């Protein structure tokens, strides 16, 4: 395949894309390849997260400090890697990669959907979200009003692209979650990606492919707007500080610029972490609703109630304080009731999970 850099010497468009669009697609394609590789390698932890979000905690508890060597005494659940090791011991290496095919298909479909949407709106809806003015200027060159309009434009355009990508990828994500979830009840209902598509269409129709879509979309959109909004406010504050610093002495100016630079770097690291922690409950609800209507054991009593809407699921989890299921890999404490299994080990008191 010809490199996009060869396109510069051509007069005709490459795959219907102009030079700028082709370069964007080329860069995005490389990112997709990297993300797919990382997703494949890290899939065992993704599987662990899904099982935790579904409330599947079948392994013995241990007694220890909340922070290993510090904090109060508490019963602790296996960390993410111990959980994965238990899966390996039970089902072997292939068991760690349950649903990986659907996961990779979903990542690819979602990325292509987002990229195609971005190219489309850049070509046909250049002013979606606002005019293109000021898009290439540095933050300090803008007034508060200009910066706000740019923030709104970027957030709207990213929201549209992300929405399309999420919708396109959702059927594959539903299949991945169900393939993982059926392990809880030792079922073999969903096998290949293709046969799972046929089964869902037969049993649930078109809407079955989008079970749990709404809470996922809400979480994605809240993330986009919260990140852009917080970045806008903090950047404007830093611009103001920079202006004040430049009016000082040479020594204070240098120290001030270093502090502002450090603040920007810290912001880029901390903001995604804080926002993702805030919207995480939507991920839990989306995962649980993905098995709704599947007929799998985990979607029915005594494993879980049958939820009519995702808001019902939200209310149920909130009442039981389970909104952060699977949010942590380490330092996982169990504060609920416990029981003794037939092997004389301590387990979570959810009767359907302990031996």
From TrEMBL:
* CC annotations in GO: mitochondrial outer membrane
Task: Please tell me where this protein is predominantly located.
Answer: mitochondrion
Q: How does it sit in the membrane?
A: Multi-pass membrane protein
Which sections of the protein are Solcar repeats?
A: 149-238
- Which subcellular locations apply to this protein? Mitochondrion outer membrane
The organism's place on the tree of life at top rank? Eukaryota
Which InterPro entries does the entry link to? MCP_dom_sf, MCP_transmembrane
The answer, when asked if Repeat is one of the entry's keywords, is yes
Under PROSITE patterns, the record lists:
SOLCAR
| Record keywords, A-Z | Membrane, Mitochondrion, Mitochondrion outer membrane, Repeat, Transmembrane, Transmembrane helix, Transport
Q: Which family does it belong to?
A: Belongs to the mitochondrial carrier (TC 2.A.29) family.
PANTHER family hit by this protein: LD43650P, MITOCHONDRIAL CARRIER HOMOLOG
Any idea what this protein is called? Mitochondrial carrier protein
Q: Which organism is it from?
A: Plectus sambesii
